[in-house]
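[Protein data]
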Amino acid sequence: MRGDRERSGLLVDFGGVLTTSVWGSFADFCREKGLAEDAVLRMFREDPAALADLRQLETGRIEEEEFERRFAERLGLEDAADLIDSMFRGMKPCEPMVAAVRAARASGVHTGLVSNSWSTSHYDRAMLAELFDAAVISAEVGLHKPQPEIYLLASQRLGVEPEGCVFVDDLRENCAGAEGVGMTAILHRHVAATVGQLEQLLGFTVPAG
């Protein structure tokens, strides 16, 4: 069974889907630095210049050290060393979602990663090789979600037409971008709900336990 129509590709985000919440990690970072716990969240949502810096980092247009210097200054922090790693240190693997991707691939679904990120060094390469047939990292390709081109590139690398792909992300705008090129998108909020939708749409079952 392949759900209500033929689908054979699964594309997923990394942070906040295969891991615990990105925003939770940012809140941990803020508390550690003595900032309001929503300081980073508000910076990305309310400061266009901060978001522009993030997009440049994610597409390889500025170096990590330059981003860290700029962002530390925006937050009023004197020490920019290790800022990026500190911001994301609170993220842990979400084992049920990892298991779902593993089960999908084992059932014959083509699986791929589509992530806005600045470096492949921040990923567990062995895990990526186990879970995915293809990986599209924004800094490596000079594109970022929700640009339509990044979804089309991921579809091409997966060897599945966009209409045959299911895409999972925790950001509404990224899901809208995927839907814009014909993919079926799942806005990830709760693990059980997301896994249930994936099983229904792609026709596989995650083993119990």
Summary: The mean pLDDT is 93. The chain is about 50% helix and 10% strand.
